[in-house]
Specification:
This protein is of the alpha+beta class. It is 63% helix and 7% strand. The protein contains 24 helices and eleven strands. The strands form three sheets. Strands 1, 2, 3, 4 and 5 form a five-stranded antiparallel β-sheet that branches. Helix 1 crosses helix 2 and helix 7 packs antiparallel against helix 8.
């Protein structure tokens, strides 16, 4: 017993003491969840998230300790024709009177006409903490709606940061609630189809949900070491459900398969632990390695996502090795109850000759080309995937701007009319300057000159009638100027205006001021800086993930060739996913089909995050499939027959796991924002390609073509394999003559 793998020893103990194992797991999950909530969340600050020059600009502005209140705007425009100035002024006065009576309004400014006289704009300053303004903006919107009802001949709208944030929170809240409500029943339905029994389908979902709950608590505790961001919990849910269901699915299917051969419940659990349990541990390490690569991005957002993902994967692996065997041992054959009649007949493992389960007919037919003509099949399939990956060479990276937010809300429709009438309220660059207090007057003069120079340039918005607005901190050390551009944030002219400001105008204006420190920030700057940051860090992250994954796979399978082909196949899968993203989202042909407006680029953070997630999740399937192939080799099969055995015996579980992932990721693609659509489509497409073309066509072609060379390793890595845990199955008859 002492020489058995740790996965078997853990499973054996849990199966022999099921109530203890289940109780310990419940206590563990409860302690993690309650302890995390008690410790509280440590969220990342703006300084933590500073990237590049734009991040430096944010740090300078923050050091000025400005008390910037939240500001809303009342925009008055005609419904048709030209604006009646008298009627508009009367409407503005009425709206101002109503708003002054609202609790939470600090002041209402004077209405300002647009340059062409087609609109009137009235600022409204809110009292209280600007961070919570979105939660308190509804009474102001009610007062604006009352003014609109009193002046139906005009369009009276409220627009500003708080109202836009409230509208987006409402939209995204509905989106995520719908996604969460859909993902659980969809996952359960797919598992019911895969197992044909309700309890067997419920066990993976139960383990996944408990793993997510424990990881949420642990990540809250970990946030005191690595600050958390608001996206961490969503990623924990996404990754936790994916790997939790996968690991349980692999384990439960193998245990049922062994019971179908006539083995006792305890023996079936042991064999599942030694085979699928071992594969779960290896694939878990692969996912953890991939996620750890995010730490090298030098970005608190990615570090937070890495910590959350690593924790939920580690918890899911632990659960699959401890509480899952206990549940299976306690349930016994009840795991196959209650049965769904038709689905049970289609999915239940059935014993064939020599006690081996009957293999499906579909997958041998799919495999036949790869086994009979591996070279031709490999060339064609890899050629198609490379063609799909080719567009990735033209990938452009940008942050989504205001123009990329959903236009389904009145707040965003009003924003479009606001920026059309008042260009300086749209896209702008933040010029942040820090200098000794005695240089404040010289800095103000330099910034005033800069504003006038920029206003004369067509890349920037015309000067406002009341001159440039320069904010100076109380200690006179920090000065801030907003330099507007009339173009959308993703427009190339906005990018050119940024470079002109950074490279020419600002350095020239600040020349000669002693002790001055300056930077340009804003939305356009943040997008450009972050894209540059990702391009610099992506090769480093990829190298780290590839190197460590190669070492883990080499050690696990005692084969350099298997490790190398694993990496190459996953790179091919990731490349195809990148190419598909570019094809779909950088062009306009899929806009109506998927309900988005193309931004002509991929969201900046997506390529790096997509790479590590796909590389980690793809390893789940690869480790599981190659483990079954290696099991066939150790059982005395020839290489070609082992490939057929490994893929046909694992195809059902891999397909089921992939369908679950694709379905959940596709739900995320239905969300309103462009970044969630790109993430959902990218993950769903990549998993689908990986589980079909890569695992069922490219992998068997490669391994059949290489033959015995698959298992080559240097002498120091070679060791005598343990005997196979099951006797070799009968060769698959329809494939024997294909080699």
């Amino acid at each position: 017993m002492g020489g058995r793998p740790v996965t078997v020893r853990l499973a054996r103990w849990s199966a022999e003491h099921p109530w203890r194992a289940i109780a310990l797991w419940v206590v563990f999950v409860a302690v993690c969840f309650v302890g995390g909530n008690a410790a509280g969340l440590n969220e990342a600050t703006q300084a933590d998230q500073a990237i590049g020059e734009s991040g430096h600009a944010d740090v300078i502005v923050t050091s000025g300790e400005f008390t910037d209140p939240a500001v809303e705007n009342i925009l008055i425009t005609p419904r048709t024709g030209t604006l009646d100035r008298a009627a508009a002024q009367a409407a503005a006065t009425d709206a101002a009177d109503r708003l002054r009576q609202v609790t939470g309004v600090a002041s209402v400014g004077e209405p300002v006409p647009s340059r062409d006289g087609a609109a009137l704009l009235m600022p409204v300053t809110m009292a209280g903490d600007p961070e919570t303004a979105a939660d308190r903006v509804q009474p102001l919107r009610d007062a604006t709606a009352a003014a609109q009802a009193a002046h139906p001949q005009l369009r009276i709208e409220q627009v500003g940061g708080p109202s836009i944030n409230q509208a987006l929170d409402d939209t995204l809240g509905r989106d995520f609630k719908r996604a969460e409500l859909l993902s659980l029943p969809v996952t359960l339905a797919i598992l019911i189809v895969a197992f044909g029994a309700l309890i067997a389908a419920g066990v993976p979902v139960l383990l996944a949900l408990s793993s997510v709950a424990a990881a949420m608590g642990l990540s809250t505790l970990a946030s005191h070491l690595v600050p958390a961001t608001d996206t961490t919990s969503s990623v924990i849910l996404l990754i936790g459900m994916a790997v939790g269901v996968d690991y349980s699915l692999f384990y439960v299917r193998r245990e049922r398969e062994e019971r179908a051969k006539g083995r006792s419940g305890l023996d079936a659990v042991e064999i599942a632990a030694e085979t699928s349990g071992h594969a779960v541990v290896v694939s878990g390490f692969a996912v953890i390695i991939s996620m750890a690569g995010l730490m090298l991005a030098d970005d608190v957002v990615f570090s937070s996502l890495a910590v959350g993902s690593i924790l939920v994967v580690a918890v899911a692996v632990t659960g699959s090795l401890t509480v899952l065997p206990a549940l299976l041992a306690k349930l016994g054959r009840w795991v196959d109850r209650p049965r769904v009649p038709l689905l049970w007949r289609l999915t239940a493992p059935r014993a064939g000759r020599h006690g081996q389960p009957v293999r499906p007919r579909f997958w041998p037919a799919v495999l036949r080309p790869a086994l009979r003509a591996p070279r031709a099949t490999l060339i064609v399939s890899v050629g198609l995937l490379l063609a799909l990956a080719a567009p990735a060479l033209g990938m452009k990276l940008k942050f989504p701007g205001m123009e990329d937010l959903p236009r389904t809300t009145p707040a965003m429709q009003a924003y479009d009319r606001l920026t059309a009438a008042f260009p300086s309220t749209g896209t702008s660059h933040t010029v942040a300057v820090r200098a000794p207090a005695d240089q404040a007057d010289q800095v103000r003069a330099a910034l005033t000159g800069l504003a006038h120079t920029a206003a004369a340039d067509p890349l920037f918005a015309p000067a406002e009638a009341d001159g440039p607005k320069i904010e100076v901190s109380a200690d006179r050390r920090v000065s801030v100027l907003e330099v507007a551009t009339p173009y959308a944030s993703r427009d190339d002219r906005s990018v050119r205006s940024l470079h002109e400001l950074r490279d020419d105008l600002l350095p020239a204006a600040m020349r000669g001021i002693p002790g001055v420190e300056y930077a340009v920030g804003g939305g356009v700057a943040a997008s450009e800086d972050y894209a540059r940051h990702i391009r610099e860090k992506l090769p480093l992250v990829m190298a780290f993930v590839l190197a460590l994954t190669f070492l883990v796979m080499t050690w696990t399978f005692r084969s350099v060739v298997v490790a190398l082909t694993s990496i190459l196949l996953n790179l091919l899968s990731a490349g195809a996913a990148y190419g598909l993203l570019v094809l779909v989202f950088q062009g306009e042909w899929a806009q109506d089909l998927l309900g988005f407006t193309s931004m002509g680029a991929i969201v900046s953070w997506l390529p790096l995050f997509l790479f590590v997630v796909l590389f980690g999740l793809s390893m789940d399937y690869h480790v599981f499939v190659v483990s079954r192939i290696r099991e066939g080799i150790r059982g005395g099969r020839s290489n070609a027959d082992a490939v057929a055995y490994g893929i046909t015996s694992s195809a059902g579980v891999v397909t089921s796991a992939a369908i679950v992932m694709v379905a959940v990721f596709a739900i995320f693609a239905s969300l309103s924002t462009i970044d969630m659509k790109q993430l959902g489509i990218g993950l769903a497409a990549a998993i689908l390609l990986d589980a079909t073309i890569i695992r069922a066509v490219v992998l068997p072609s490669v391994m059949t073509l290489l033959g015995e060379a698959n298992w080559w390793a240097p002498r120091f890595l070679r060791r005598r394999d343990r005997p196979a845990v099951t006797p070799p199955a009968e060769p698959t008859p329809e494939l024997v003559g294909a080699h």
